[in-house]
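Exercise 7. Given the encoded structure of a 301-residue chain, write a plausible sequence.
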């Protein structure tokens, strides 16, 4: 099969059969376009000639370009998924990417707010203004429910169930989950929805069911929400290496410290695997070990 046709079939499979988001498809498309460029340079235009050593050469080129380990890992994951697709379809007799190894990533500590900082941050928006009430609700939901930025941007008014004290969240792969709301969030949602049309500029009206809108009346984007978070981080005097995802990390970490079990946190975050949630135990354990090393008499011996 022609390599370009193989990539096109794979992207159609992601879109039509697997139900992947356009953001995911765009990422795969970009990664595999780089693979196609490499194969073209190597005069390989048929998938049957794409073997393990060819893919090793592609990975070596990525390292030579000085890309970060996380970027190389993502591109390798795209290549592996593509080859697995070709193998399952019988286009390739053997999967040439099966033996490719992911780069070892440097472990990073999550950026987690302390309680005082996050409380101060949540109090910053001017809730006497419709846009300020909108910002305050977004910050509260990020910290109070652990939703991703993309999930927040995608929320509709119809997802809110103030009477049932819950909200529907559409996560990765169009998977839905129900997340409980605190009384504070219920009250804020009711108040915000009542003034939501006033967020739009005069003469503008909300265009759809989007919960969070901008001055044009259209849905807020992920990027707009990130800019909003940066704005309040600056006002609070907090480092800009905190991000919207820091609210999600803080949500999970503070729940764990409060005694919540991992299964509950897994369901609230929408993690498919418990192992993904267990990273928060590693963070908590490292904090405990640090305190132990600094304060316990036996640790100083």
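Solution.
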């Amino acid at each position: 099969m022609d390599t370009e046709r193989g990539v096109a079939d794979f992207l159609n499979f992601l879109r039509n059969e697997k139900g992947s988001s356009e953001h995911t498809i765009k990422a795969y498309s970009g990664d595999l376009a780089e693979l196609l460029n490499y194969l073209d340079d190597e005069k390989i235009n048929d998938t049957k000639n794409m073997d393990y050593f060819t893919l090793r050469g592609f990975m070596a080129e990525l390292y030579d370009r000085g890309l970060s380990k996380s970027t190389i890992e993502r591109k390798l994951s795209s290549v592996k998924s593509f080859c697995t697709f070709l193998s399952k379809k019988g286009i390739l007799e053997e999967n040439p990417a099966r033996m490719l190894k992911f780069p070892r990533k440097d472990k990073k500590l999550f950026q987690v707010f302390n309680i005082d900082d996050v409380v101060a941050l949540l109090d910053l928006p001017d809730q006497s203004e419709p846009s300020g009430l909108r910002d305050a609700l977004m910050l509260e939901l990020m910290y109070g429910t652990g939703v991703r930025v993309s999930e927040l941007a995608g929320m509709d008014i119809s997802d809110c169930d103030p009477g049932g004290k819950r909200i529907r969240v559409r996560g990765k792969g169009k998977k839905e989950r129900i997340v409980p709301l605190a009384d504070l969030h219920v009250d804020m949602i009711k108040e915000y929805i009542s003034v939501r049309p006033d967020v739009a500029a005069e003469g503008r009206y909300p265009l759809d069911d989007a919960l969070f809108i901008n001055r044009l009346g259209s849905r807020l984007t992920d990027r707009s929400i990130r800019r909003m978070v940066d704005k309040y981080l600056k006002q609070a005097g907090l480092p800009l290496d905190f991000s919207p995802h820091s609210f999600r990390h803080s949500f999970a970490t503070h729940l764990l410290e409060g005694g919540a079990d991992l299964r509950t946190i897994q369901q609230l975050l929408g993690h498919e695997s418990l192992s993904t949630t267990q990273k928060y135990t590693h963070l908590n354990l490292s904090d405990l070990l640090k305190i132990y090393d600094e304060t316990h008499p036996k640790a100083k011996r």
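Remark. The longest strand covers residues 166-170. Students should compare their own answers with the one above.
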